[in-house]
Amino acid sequence: MMEQLTVKNLVKKYRHTMVLDNISFNLEPAKIYGLLGRNGAGKTTLLNIMSSRIFPTSGEVRIGGEDINNDDDLLSKIFLMSEANLYPREMNIHQTFDLADAAYGNFNYDLANRLLTAFELDGKSKVTNLSTGQRTASKLIVALAVNASYILLDEPILGLDANHRELFYQELVKTYQEKPRTFVLSTHLIEEIQQLVEHVLVLDRQKILLNDDLDTILAKAYAISGPAQLVDDYVTGLKVLKSEMLGNIKTAYVFDKLDDQRAIPDQVKINHYDLQHLFIYLTDGGEK
Amino acid sequence: MMEQLTVKNLVKKYRHTMVLDNISFNLEPAKIYGLLGRNGAGKTTLLNIMSSRIFPTSGEVRIGGEDINNDDDLLSKIFLMSEANLYPREMNIHQTFDLADAAYGNFNYDLANRLLTAFELDGKSKVTNLSTGQRTASKLIVALAVNASYILLDEPILGLDANHRELFYQELVKTYQEKPRTFVLSTHLIEEIQQLVEHVLVLDRQKILLNDDLDTILAKAYAISGPAQLVDDYVTGLKVLKSEMLGNIKTAYVFDKLDDQRAIPDQVKINHYDLQHLFIYLTDGGEK
To answer: What order of strands is seen across the sheet that includes strand B58-63?
Structure first.
């Protein structure tokens, strides 16, 4: 039975700088999450704490109610793919598979070897000799083939060209369907992962700003366009993230439930807008 | 008067490796180009030759018929923003502006200072101390404010979060409208630049695979879906880049002019697909 991962009241300070400010959320088993945040929002620190690479100032990460730091069995349920290169200098790609097998057991060598071919990699290549895109691909293979329940991916598409990004998205969906487990994708390419993720966490200025199902979020993202006065009347009382004028036409980007009772004037058009723009409007001004 | 830039029969070999294999194309004045290619296709080498940072094995780059390497005035019409950090260690952002002003003249300090604020940068920061995203932003500011007719951008969005990418796209359009000049965007984020570029160059396996206006290209990109037999009949004689089966429904991704004379069966649906997928289907299998 797979159990929930709980992040509870997590605080991380470096000297006097607050990096994570009382973060709490849950990860369900067998779900694909998007972790979004501007540069400097604290995403990498959060993922490092969730995989016990660094310790929080206070707060806990639990699986099934048990602190992960007190239990090696729990730690071996969590895998982090990160930008940091933790492999010894002389290690080749095949050996990184063996390392994942030794640490987590039951490594999926069949999948990994098939993906080596798909990503056009030679398993005998040393990891340190790979280009950025190749190194990312080799790490993605480990992340997709490792036997863990919670797989955290920090910038999983760094340096990949469009073809290899598409390949990764397809293989992620395929392995998830065969063996459902939890993936957390932390990336700036929001437009591309919108099709993959079920649930979205937005970190902004060291806090959780949004934590909801993608469908619920997108159902509140409306662009309302028309003559300025009509648009202003219509959006009164709604949460408007941003508005633009083009000639006489105003567009208001709303993040709210629309009141279906009210009549919509003929000249006013209502459209949905996408997750990437919602993210931008929600977090503008939030870079450190 | 602005003159055309001509790349003619460019060849670049490193020992026995062909990096560019007889490349020819023109860049028109005042146009925004997308330069697309897989990792290893030769994009960076091409841009380095076009800005005279490296020399070709054979072939030429000309402006108005004159070889750029014979004429410093012509060289000062071309600016390359690249991943390589060419600035001295101790140089701060303000000083990189002065360097661009000294080399190209008439640097747009007003724009540059406004963009420093927009990208949340401190002009007194040393370039070497910046994060990847901040360094990219500081280089983009120089590229948008420099006084050159041909501005080549190699991976201009490296490390930028979605908000700063959107800011860059908006500022590029704004400065282009105020003072039309030629930009070449070389990037893997094809989906995002589709809205910006007028003309597309695709480099694949060391050669030019595609060189056409975006509108002309997209007008030939059709996804044809329906019962397999009907789709197969319809696409006979057309160039099919890829096809997929989902249950009994086949989708063929065509890159060709459709013959409007032929009747389309009711069960067959025809939709356009986007530049990023066209690129992927055209170049799959083309990574070095």
So the answer is: B17-27, B5-14, B58-63, B66-67
Which pLDDT band, with edges at 50, 70 and 90, does A86 fall under?
confident
Burial of A104 (0-12, 13-18, 19+ CB in 10 A): middle
CB contact at 8 A, A183 and A32: yes
CB contact under 8 A, B287 and A164: yes
Mean pLDDT of the region A244-259: 92
Strands (E) in B28-107, as ranges, are: 32-37, 58-63, 66-67, 78-81
Per-domain residue ranges for chain B? 5-213, 219-283
CB distance B188–A161 less than 8 Å? yes
What is the fold, at CATH topology level, of the domain defined by B5-213? Answer: Rossmann fold (3.40.50)
pLDDT of B100-123, one tens digit each? 999 999 999 999 999 999 999 999
The average confidence (pLDDT) of chain B is: 93
Q: According to the model, what pLDDT value does residue B251 have?
A: 96
Q: Which of A120, A136, A157, A163 to mutate to test the interface with B (most CBs of B within 10 A)?
A: A163
Contacting residues of B for A162, CB less than 8 Å apart: 188, 190, 276, 279-280
Q: What is the pLDDT of residues A101-152, one digit of tens each?
A: 999 999 999 999 999 999 999 999 999 999 999 999 999 999 999 999 999 9
Rounded distance between C-alpha atoms, residue A131 and residue A43, angstroms: 24
Strand partners, A176: none
> Residue B177: its pLDDT value, please?
97
Determine contact, residues B192/B276, Cβ cutoff 8 Å. Answer: no
Q: How are the residues of chain A apportioned to helix, strand and coil, as percentages rounded to the nearest 5?
A: 35, 30, 35
What is the pLDDT, as a whole number, of residue A285? 63
* Chain B nearest C-alpha distance from A271 (Å): 19
**Using an 8 Å Cβ cutoff, are B234 and B49 in contact?**
no
What architecture is the B219-283 domain classified under in CATH?
Answer: 2-Layer Sandwich (3.30)
Contact B162 A120 (CB under 8 A): no
Size of interface A-B (CB pairs under 8 A): 53
- Domains B5-213 and B219-283 alike in fold: no
Please state, in angstroms and rounded to a whole number, the distance separating the CA atoms of residues A260 and A271: 14
Question: What is the ipTM metric for this complex?
Answer: 0.89
Residues of A in contact with B162 (CB under 8 A): 188, 190, 276, 279-280
Taking an 8 Å cut-off on Cβ atoms, the answer to whether B159 and A287 are in contact is no
Question: Which pair of structure tokens corresponds to residue B226?
Answer: 């329906």
- The pLDDT score that the predictor gives to residue B152 is 98
Looking at the partner chain, which of A164, A188, A191 has a beta carbon nearest the beta carbon of B191? A191
Q: Which positions in chain A touch B39 (Cβ < 8 Å)?
A: 131, 133, 159-161, 164
Distance (Å) from the C-alpha of residue B102 to the closest C-alpha of chain A? 32
Nearest-CA neighbor of B197 among B217, B179, B219? B217
